[in-house]
Amino acid sequence: xxxxxxxxxxxxxxxxxxxxxxxTPKWAVVVSPAGSVQLKLNGNExxxxxxxxxxxxxxxxxxxxxxxxxxxxxxxxxxxIATKSGTIVDVELRLDAENPTAxxxxxxxxxxxxxxxxxxxxxxxxxxxxxxxxFEADDxxxxxxAEYDKMALRSGPIKSLQLxxxxxxxxxxxVSQGTSVLLQDDRQWGQTFxxxxxxxxxxxxxxxxxxxxxxxFALSSKDGLGVEEDGPITVVPGKDWLPLDVxxxxxxxxxxxxxxxIPRHMPAGKYGRVIANSEGKFAFADxxxxxxxFYGVNLCFSAHYLSHELADKLAERLWRLGYNAIxxxxxxxxxIQRSSRDGLSFDLEKLDQLDYLFAALKKRGMYVTTxxxxxxxxxxxxxxxxxxxxxxxGNVGMDEYKMAxxxxxxxxxxxxxxxxxxxxxxxxxxxxxxADDPTLSWLSLVxxxxxxxxxxxxxxxxxxxxxxxxxxxxxxxxxxxxxxVAALGDLPEDHSPAKGNVPLxxxxxxxxxxxxxxxxxxxxxxDFFNRTKQFLRKELGCQALLTDMNxxxxxxQMQAVRDSFDYVDDHFYVDHPKFLERSWSLPSSCxxxxxxxxxxxxxxxxxxxxxxxxxxxxxxxxxxxPGRFRGVGGILTGTLGAxxxxxxxxxxxxxxxxxxVAKPGPLNYFDVSADPLNQAxxxxxxxxxxxxxxxxxxxxxxxxxxxxxxxxxxxxSRDKTPSWDGLAWLARxxxxxxxxxxxxxEQVVLPIExxxxxxxxxxxxxxxxxxxxxxxxxxxxxSTELDKNRFQSDNGQVTIDAPEDMLTLDTPRTAxxxxxxxxxxxxxxxxxxxxxxxxxxxxxxLDTKPIRQSKRLLITHLTDLQNTDARYADKGRKIxxxxxxxxxxVQTGRAMVSLRIDDPSHAxxxxxxxxGKRISEIKTTIEAGQLVVPLSVxxxxxxxxxxEVQIGAxxx
Length: 956
Hints:
With 956 residues, the protein is of the alpha+beta class. Among the domains are: 220 residues, Beta-galactosidase, Chain A, domain 5 (Distorted Sandwich), CATH 2.70.98; 337 residues, Glycosidases (TIM Barrel, Alpha-Beta Barrel); 89 residues. It contains 16 helices and 58 strands. A 10-stranded mixed beta sheet has the order 5-6-7-8-18-1-14-13-10-11, with no helix packed on it. Strands 2, 3, 4, 9, 12, 15, 16, 17 and 19 form a 9-stranded mixed beta sheet that branches. Strands 39-40-41-42-45-46-58-52-53 form a 9-stranded antiparallel beta sheet, with helices on one face. The relative contact order is 0.09.
């Protein structure tokens, strides 16, 4: 093999370079068998180092781990870079280290010819640690801006680059021979800064197959820098992990029986249909002035199709768990007869099971939402019949159908036919058509069908359908070529709508054509919604509230469309799996980092999907397994939903199959029925959001726009979420689509054009925050520091301290939070000292009284939960190789809770089983008038997570 040294650079990264400390190194380089590198500072993730490249058209290539679960025996770490064009680049890394220096030697070799635009090694650093700091590139001084302003901060041949963080940490990067260095602010895509070191290339420069390029550098630190070889681990029972006994059903009358803790009524529909009232809140038709919230779970696939006995058991269980809403999701596949090519013939046995489950849920006061298309099997020949009579085999892909139904008449008629068959059906157990039953309160037309999600992936006849629709739309909108060219910015002479060859555009591009293309997508979506609403209301007489577009591509134009919906819906996930080889197959990866340390970003972007004046829901969310910090997700989601005064939340999911409904199963990505830790976390959400323990934020910020600005004369199609989404933890946020920009004293209004503050300006977040302080919205004691990801709500009930990795929740009826080992959570009603394992701990009153006066409390202590023999490729447990099996194992940990209650001398504390049944009495003490409760996962060789505090005799 021919070897060529493209360039050889010496990079020295140092924290004020000097002699290393003899103590344990402050910095660590953790390298995987494949050669991916994580930087850690005091044991916490602090950056990464990866090789990368861009092909022509600036297509990025992805570093691929490979070698899952292997160890390095010859000192060479082997991975690959996979390019979009199909070329594989072999990557070898040899790492030599002696504290305080680590020397890296990369060799990269393509297996086939490739054309490059750039080639580099990237040092990526979290913006939360460095924003607001400074840099010095040779003799040039600059700032690492507190908020995003521009991408390139410094670029060119640089010998020395020094960075200093606001906290005084500094990095010095020295490059031999003046190699080109790019210092980049990545915050238009993610929360990082990056330093790319590599040669300047001509656009499309050739890199022949077999030609090896070398990159060499060294990394060092005055505080010491150690190197750790990463490798596989397996979770096994022992002193660190203890088995948990699990039953799915709730012990009636126990501390986790929320059938009386959360006020609800039975049956669903008792007070009429769910409506959107004049204040933009959900209410019942018979009680229009009383707003109501909903909290529920999703059921998926075979979890809908149960014996009558099991359906009753599930409905009873969900009621005792505290839910008042269910989402029926991914229900079509079993419902449709296998022989039904058009996906319209129901399996009568399955229909009976679905009917019975629906009736059981109705009986127990649970309101239902569903989608009219999720994943129903429909043959390709139904939508795209062949002109020669030879039809393509197989079914239309799920995402293909979502796109077809907008522009293909056969797809839309098939969609209507299914909706008619379902909604016209009379449930024999309720004696009502689904269209008439108030239990079926909400309908999403098509799950996750935002047109921009898939428009760039269209092929064949479907792409042709959209191309035709796009060109017809252009022809209708622009009367002559001059106005068309002016709108698009550029148009080749041989392209015209009349020829039908104006190509589909990139929805994410920053071009005039992209803006107009997003207007087109918005108007196509509006037309689809209008036609479907007309059909449901006029032809079927269905009055369920309607929505659509609940994930993830959201140019601001779509806010104008949402303004016609009955309510607005969205989805979000934290630690959603990424599949490394095949979809929905192991190995998979997730970040598995503390969401608190990252500023609790889960759901923040969704906050700007909300339109003031309309109810807002999240029908899918999860802090997914096997993420070790998922226990905090219940508090975070319930808190955010309550602060924002949202109207409904649905965890994804309760179960994906009937087996996980019937008996405990091993942990999987999403099912709370198989995850006792996430099921426990649900109780925080139920108390905070559904019971209303957190007050809504007192003030609101609204981005405003008119339909004319969004659709008729748009200047931007950027995402609807601004960079300052962290303010969602301080005040209510969202959009208004209106012709008026008047405000009241509790609301700041930010027009997208012509206002004092551009909501998408680089300084908008800080200006809004300073304005909130100036007009007295925030108390002088409010601890918010935007540049450090410290947030405190305007009502003072929640504090997120990212630098300390701490969450504090302080309400009268629920108090607690998250903290690493050795730190303390301080609230008015309790002090919680986390002793040896980071944990989420909270106390909730189980009656209507505050914690101090309550007669019954529930304490929850969540560390981590895994399956026995779960296997990971790395010590950070980011790459899952094998799920393992039952029993569940809980990570050991201890905490000390000091409760300030009125009558500590008459308190008894019990350790609880997962069912809520009392299993042991806990020895407590009274110190300085406080009840001191020791929490420990370990209980005679088994695990526990739940505690009940009974003060005085139980109520009869």
